[in-house]
Amino acid sequence: MNNSVVAKRQSRWRSTCLVGAAIILVTAGVSTIQGRSGQGTGAEQRVESPVPSPPVPGKPSLAELDIAIKRGTDAFIREFVKTSYAAVSNGGYVDYKNAAGIIKHYGPDVYVASQLYLLTHFLMYYQDFGISRDDALLKDVHDWFVAQFDEEQGYWLWSHEGCLHPKGMIALANFSHTDLVEKAYEWALHAPFYLSTDLMFTMMKSGSIIQTLGDARISLTGKHEWEHGSPIPDAENSSKLLYALLKAGVPPTDKRVADLRGGIASYILATTKTVAAMGTRDIVGLVWYVLAAHHFDLQKDAAYERCVDLMEKGVNSEWQANVTLVEIPGMRSLMIRALMTAGRRSPQMDAAINGYVRSQTESGIWPLPRVLRIWGLDKPPANGIKMGTMDGANTYLLTLSLIHYRAVEFGQGQAARASSSQPPPQVPSGAMPADLETDTSPDAMAFKRTCKRCHILPSPYTYNKVEWPGVARKMQAYMGEQGLDVAQKDVALSLQYVTRHAFSAVRPPTTRSSSGDGKQPQ
After folding, report:
1. How confident is the model at residue 503 (pLDDT cuts 50, 70, 90)?
2. Stretch 163-189: mean pLDDT, rounded?
3. What is the pLDDT of residues 267-325, one digit of tens each?
4. Which helix (H) or strand (E) holds 491?
5. Spatial distance between the Cα atoms of 335 and 330, rounded to a whole number of angstroms
6. Alpha carbon 330 to chain centroid distance?
7. CA neighbor of 349 nearest in space, from 419, 300, 421
8. What domain range includes position 459?
9. Which of left, alpha, beta for 483 (phi over 0: left; psi -120 to 50: alpha)?
10. Backbone phi and psi for residue 79, each to the nearest 5 degrees, phi listed first
11. How many domains does the chain fold into?
């Protein structure tokens, strides 16, 4: 990366540090920790503190974690997912009372930012929450979500909003809609928030939906604005788009992945910040970069090491100097989840998790009353429309952190595999040859419906006839670990199909071009 780009980023960083320091001085005194430990089942125990969910020395028991996770999961679905789906599934109608007390009726196709985020995260994390693929609510949300995607254009009505587009891509990949992920990424590359000179993305606020955290005056104007006041590189959005590509089965050698990862790494190394000066986009960017490295077995580069170092400092001590980390425990929990995935542990992390368990309300929600006031969400704005809260996001984030902690501490559940040092079986590389894509024989159809549930369809040429049975066994075991039911007949037919087309004894030449862009050679 050229020196002018690095200098420009360092200038932005210095400006951010000054703003962050000013905020910290204005809010000085809110980060005093006054927690206390106690006995009991966790959720019944209260912690008095000016900090939401302060650390409490010690570790929660398995029974306490089970209770808190059950309450958090039930609350997330009951209070946030069901209510959000009810709001969007009626065609998108909203009744809004403005500051003058006048009620206006908006719709159809009027959506609230926080509701869209809650539904998207439900699709992203349903497996972590232990929700069956056959769950009726999950099916309804999935069907609505996919129906809202414009396949021709490759985007949703709300795609300009924050990180809803990359998170939507992750949700699509979670249900094996890899063709839609490809279309969505192609749209993103031509959207105004792609910064081609930086090989990164920025963030915007959508004028097509009702804002929750953004400027109330842009709600439903149809005009989009920059999240940070200008189109500057954003590690949060970029790292999530990187994760989405990898989740959809795009190999690390693909030019799109390599370019994006290179841009993010350069940004992280050129704009190193202290924990005190980090904003939400920095914190979340570090988290997703580390998660991508571990979940898809990427090389642990210098940017990765920088991310882990900053997160450890943040979780272990320096979070108290950062307003975002003080006021929103969900942000702290994001870093804890990433560090656990990276194999890091500390007494401070134990204490943070213990504090989350003991500050949960009886209803299972972790509310953020001060954030409502700080961000102006406690009353209608004088100008414009703003709706929603951060309570739902805080609740699912803290619940996820407890799920992952339980997995690491007690070796239970889906998160145990996600946090394991052993990566899942590698998805076979190589695209399906065109003549095989149109094959409608019974074993070909079984192969397509079975293998596409987890990743892009591999070429049968990837392995030879001797190798395929072992690969199939690994993939079948992995699907079982993910809770995916697969008929034994389909497994047998799929294996019959790939061995029918595989080379007899040796691996074939690679089907990818030498440029590493993932395209077939012409």
Report:
1. low
2. 96
3. 999 987 799 999 899 999 999 999 999 999 899 999 999 999 999 999 999 999 999 99
4. helix 488-501
5. 9
6. 13
7. 419
8. 434-501
9. left
10. -90, -25
11. 1
Query: What residues contact residue 445 under an 8 Å CB cut-off, 6+ apart?
Result: none
> Does a structural domain hold residue 306?
no
Q: Say how many residues make up the chain.
A: 522
Q: Confirm whether 447 is domain-assigned.
A: yes
Beta bridge partners of residue 226, listed in sequence order:
204
Location of structure tokens 């992203």: 124
Tokens 């094996």 identify what position? 176
Q: Are 199 and 262 in contact (CB under 8 A)?
A: yes
Q: What is the 3-state secondary structure (H, E, C) of 423-438?
A: CCCCCCCCCCCHHHHC
pLDDT in tens, 50-93: 789 999 999 999 999 999 999 999 999 999 999 999 999 999 99
Task: Dig out the tokens for 203 from the structure.
Answer: 């963030």
Any idea which residue has 């050229």 for tokens? Answer: 2
The residue type found at 264 is I
Q: What is the CA radius of gyration of the chain?
A: 23
pLDDT class for 7, splitting at 50, 70, 90?
very low
Q: What type of residue sits at position 67? A: I
DSSP 135: -
Answer yes or no: pTM beyond 0.70. yes
Tell me if 145 sits within 8 A of 171, measured CB to CB: yes
Task: Tell me, rounded to whole angstroms, the distance of Cα 399 from its chain centroid.
Answer: 14
Mean pLDDT of 451-472: 75
Query: pLDDT tens, 91-110?
Result: 999 999 999 999 999 999 99
471 within some domain: yes
Asked if residue 373 is part of any domain, the answer here is no
Angle between helices 255-270 and 3-26 (to 10 degrees): 60
488 in Cβ contact with 446 (< 8 Å) = no
Token digits of residue 182: 């490809």
